[in-house]
Amino acid sequence: MAIEAMMLSGLNSGVVLSLIAVLWTVVWQNLQHLQLQQFFARHLSRHARRLAAMVDPYLSVTISEYEGGRMKRSDAYEEVKAYLSDASARGVRHLRAEGAKDADKLVLSMSDGEEVEDEFQGARVFWGAFSKQPPRSDGAAAFWGGAAAQEERRFFRLYFLERHRSLVLDTYLPRVRQLGRDVMVKNRQRKLFTNISTSQWSDGGYMRSAWSHVVFEHPKTFDTLAMDPVQKKRIKADLDMFKSGKDYYKRVGKAWKRGYLLYGPPGTGKSAMIAAMANHLDYDIYDIELTSVHTNTDLRKLFIETTSKSIIVIEDIDCSLDLTGAREKKAAAEEDDKDKKGGGPVRPGEKKDTSSKVTLSGLLNFIDGLWSACGGERIIVFTTNHVEKLDPALIRRGRMDKHIEMSYCGFEAFKFLAKTYLDVDSHPLFDTVGELLREVQMTPADVAENLTPKSLDDGPDSCLEDLVKALEEAKEKKASGGDEQDKQDEEEQPHAQELGRRPGHGEGAVEEAKEKEKASGGDEQNQQR
Ligand SMILES: Nc1ncnc2c1ncn2[C@@H]1O[C@H](COP(=O)(O)OP(=O)(O)OP(=O)(O)O)[C@@H](O)[C@H]1O
Ligand SMILES: [Mg+2]
What we know:
- By secondary structure, this protein is of the alpha/beta class.
- Among the domains are: 58-134 and 147-188, no CATH class; 198-328 and 356-405, Rossmann fold (3-Layer(aba) Sandwich), CATH 3.40.50; 411-477.
- 47% of the residues lie in helices and 17% in strands.
- The protein contains 19 helices and 18 strands.
- An 8-stranded mixed β-sheet has the order 12-9-14-15-16-13-17-18, sandwiched between helices. A 4-stranded antiparallel β-sheet has the order 1-8-7-6, with helices on both faces.
- β2 (66-67) and β3 form a beta hairpin.
- α2 packs antiparallel against α3 (35-55), α15 packs parallel to α17 (444-451) and α16 (430-439) packs parallel to α18.
- The relative contact order is 0.08.
- Bound molecules: adenosine-5'-triphosphate and magnesium ion (MG).
- Residues 270-271, 315, 383 line the site of magnesium ion (MG).
- Adenosine-5'-triphosphate is lined by residues 220, 225-227, 266-272, 385, 406, 444-445, 448.
């Protein structure tokens, strides 16, 4: 088709001949698997190349799917693929289809062996899509390459006339990448990744990717998250600043990442906040289940496989790792040592120790920018119900840059939820609810549940009555269970004293954190009350 077009446009026969020669070479490269070629290939393709060299003024640029020893997917390849997806739909007979953001739409790209023509400022260029079998690699390379190491190696090759060299290399290709990025944004389906247990990474000799994913479609946004409007505005501004901070991070020599610590009792909206952050930034989420990660090396591999524009989440960090008490430097160093010596990838047939050996030092290393050096634009979020249990080293500034307390529902948060769930700005029961919320602690999750209509007959009146009832019950329970609670607190006292903190829901640590934050002046406190 390309040849026909060239003839029609009246280009000289030398160009046509050269294109034939180039296409001939390409065809033969693609037919490598045929036995027939083994006989002719060596002679004919050499002649074709010689012919091309004599008359061929064409140059080519190859853009492969993987770069850097196949550990990292090439951004350029993805961008070219996205750019060509538009062009592909026009002139290509065989297309590959993938899902797009809009559930009914498909993103089309060229199948292997297809070719598409493009024109830029009077220069005509040709793109070809190819793939070849991966060479047999050793176990370690296959491990680090993951599933990708077993896949065919895809690449695009761009052909253009020598006289268009600088136009193509300096202007056209950067433009293609830029337009490709725009198409990617348009079609991007955000994903929620979860890590596969490391014992399944190497399954009967087949190296799997460390992550599996589903499409991320969480409806929570900052518009439906109940919290102090000033704090919400600040968090959004912080996220916006991060997203557009590429040059800033480069200038100050920091890895382009930011750590958030979300702490507070269960049901106060920590997970909801992560979803809102992902929706606000349009990022993917990588949810790391640390108990399924067996060594520090595995943790590094997981991190290397994350892509930029992502939020890496470790929920309930205090439950995932034994981080209580002082930092056991020696134990951590020993673990690290073991990890370096023998904790690496498990080969097929080897027995896997299933207990997690991820250490605090491994985790610190992970968030310290050492591994984030392999790519930018990543946010790391830890959540915990017990901030007092976390090692100070883990949450110090530079690691967890921003500490956000998510607390029980206050009157402002209640009014916000009433507006969101019931579409009411005021109601005679508001004052009663406000008073009760001052006396008992109820999480936004419980308030939201009470405000959710349970039948078609339910309206603001019945829902608010339900909430008042629930709050009164909680108040009674608190009054009758007060003595018991005091006893329990006394029992907990020794441990709390050991830690040098007051007992209870970690208020001591929270207060400490607040004081420190006041001193440093940099933190967010989501005081919903
Ligand atoms: N501040 C809030 N604003 C709006 N909805 C909230 C808020 N907090 C909680 N919710 C709602 O309550 C439910 C539970 O909240 P979420 O899972 O975010 O709590 P969590 O703090 O992550 O709890 P856990 O510590 O148990 O993981 C969600 O459906 C969420 O939409
Ligand atoms: Mg949660």
